[in-house]
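> forwarded from #structure-qc
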């Protein structure tokens, strides 16, 4: 790792705001480590800056912080595709980027997450707790442990195959101390050892965050920690703990109603959002933002009545994905075909799940919500052959999507699991989970050409546009456990770390 790149960030970018004025920014030019950690308020501001760095740092328009990884995960599956020729994710969709370790995106994904880990390591290393330590100081250190666990949980699922395939496989280097220019780069650690660290970090966070009441949902609290536990145990296939922690994570966060589902997935105030990142117009950076790529809802029309869109609108739902929804499902009502020949998305499905806020384009980033936790809980019950609880849990979601309840007597162990996994695809589309599930379940996307047609505004029958890439770059078929699903260690890291 190019260690010097991590060191300077402590003094430059992280005291970007305080918890009483979240969006105020006063970037200092020279701050020593001792000054950063000289008070609880400074540490709090450091954590706030660290979270903003992870979510907002951008090296280009198509790398809008961590959400760039979410969007890449989506277009590497089967339910979304990158609009042909449109800027942003046209190379991720055909598995060329980030598979190629020489690309700027491969370097960005690696650097972003390891820098965030270094931020967490600095907080952990510079907060010494004893019997006289304040509760607030414990809460600050607990948030750092949660942040570090979150990053490693993402990395171990991006750079290596799933735990059950080979827990001894080497994945990524592990750093638990702050780095500086003299730090010797570490070798790769095994999948199992990284999960051990994740569980240990989450256990520390769980202990330290007792009683923490956050004022803004960007901060990891106990619910977030429980949710990260649930994600980890889901991949570790510890079904009992996965269900236990998923249930704990969603306590206090009701499943959103059908009406709320159609409001646009753009605000942390939504009752279902356990964790999210609020942004102002300035921080959202216009085109360099999550919603600028995933939103496909027109926000106004021109003088001729033609629909106009904000942002790149690069990531489109596949027509075959629309077929997965039952009639009456509130989610199905959010799909519509762009039927005006003059509009930018002509002949594509629009999906109004994501809608930016207008006129300021300051929509928020979703990181965790209770529907995800409910689906983890339901899947865990199904894996434990508890069909009754699996169906009952799933029905809690279905009721809030305008669907009738399922009857447990209609399912066996296999069919209920299939239904839950299908529901993950329907419910979590666009939120960054698809690649994780492809790797976890050791299956392959099934990309089919579109057969949907519509009659456009000029009364012509036209085929709805869908997948235009159905094979890997080498021409081979999409298969499970392919090298093309894994993120690459960037060439810069290989050249600078002799211990890999």
């Amino acid at each position: 790792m190019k260690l010097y790149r991590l060191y300077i960030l402590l003094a430059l970018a992280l005291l970007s705001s305080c918890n009483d004025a979240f969006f105020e920014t006063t970037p200092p030019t020279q701050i020593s480590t001792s000054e950063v950690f000289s008070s609880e308020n400074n540490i709090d501001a450091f954590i706030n800056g660290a979270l903003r760095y992870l979510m907002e740092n951008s090296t280009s328009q198509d790398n809008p912080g961590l959400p760039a990884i979410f969007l890449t995960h989506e277009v590497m599956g089967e339910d979304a595709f990158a609009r042909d020729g449109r800027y942003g994710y046209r190379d991720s969709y055909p598995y060329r980027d980030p598979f190629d370790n020489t690309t700027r995106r491969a370097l960005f994904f690696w650097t972003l997450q390891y820098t965030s880990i270094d931020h967490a390591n600095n907080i952990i290393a510079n907060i010494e707790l004893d019997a006289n330590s304040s509760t607030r100081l414990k809460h600050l250190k607990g948030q750092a442990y949660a942040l570090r666990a979150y990053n490693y949980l993402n990395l171990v699922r991006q750079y290596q195959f799933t735990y059950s395939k080979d827990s001894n496989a080497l994945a990524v280097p592990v750093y638990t101390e702050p780095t500086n220019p003299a730090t010797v780069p570490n070798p790769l650690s095994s999948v199992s050892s990284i999960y051990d660290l994740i569980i240990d970090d989450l256990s520390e966070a769980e202990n330290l965050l007792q009683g923490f009441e956050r004022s803004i949902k960007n901060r990891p609290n106990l619910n977030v920690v429980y949710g990260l536990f649930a994600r980890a145990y889901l991949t570790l296939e510890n079904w009992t703990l996965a269900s236990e922690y998923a249930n704990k994570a969603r306590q206090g966060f009701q499943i959103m109603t059908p009406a709320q589902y159609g409001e646009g997935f753009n605000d942390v105030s939504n009752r279902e959002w356990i964790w999210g990142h609020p942004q102002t117009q300035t921080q959202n950076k216009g085109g360099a933002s999550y919603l600028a790529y995933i939103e496909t809802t027109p926000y106004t029309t021109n003088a001729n009545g033609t629909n106009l869109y904000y942002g790149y609108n690069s990531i489109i739902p596949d027509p075959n994905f629309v077929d997965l929804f039952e009639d009456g499902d509130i989610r199905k009502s959010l799909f519509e075909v762009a039927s005006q020949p003059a509009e930018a998305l002509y002949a594509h499905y629009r999906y109004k799940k994501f809608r930016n806020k207008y006129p300021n384009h300051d929509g928020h980033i979703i990181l965790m919500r209770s529907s995800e936790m409910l689906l983890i809980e339901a899947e865990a019950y199904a894996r434990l052959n508890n069909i009754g609880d699996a169906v009952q849990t799933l029905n809690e979601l279905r009721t809030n999507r305008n669907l009738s309840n399922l009857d447990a007597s209609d399912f066996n162990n296999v069919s209920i699991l299939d239904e839950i996994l299908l529901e993950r695809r329907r419910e979590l589309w666009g939120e960054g989970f698809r690649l994780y599930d492809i790797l976890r379940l050791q299956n392959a996307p099934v990309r089919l050409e579109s057969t949907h047609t519509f009659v456009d505004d000029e009364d012509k029958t036209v085929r709805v546009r869908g997948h235009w890439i159905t094979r890997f770059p080498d021409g081979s078929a999409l298969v499970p456990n392919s090298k093309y699903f894994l993120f690459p260690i960037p060439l810069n890291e290989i050249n600078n770390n002799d211990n890999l």
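QC bot note: Residues 275-365 form one domain. The first helix runs from residue 4 to 7.
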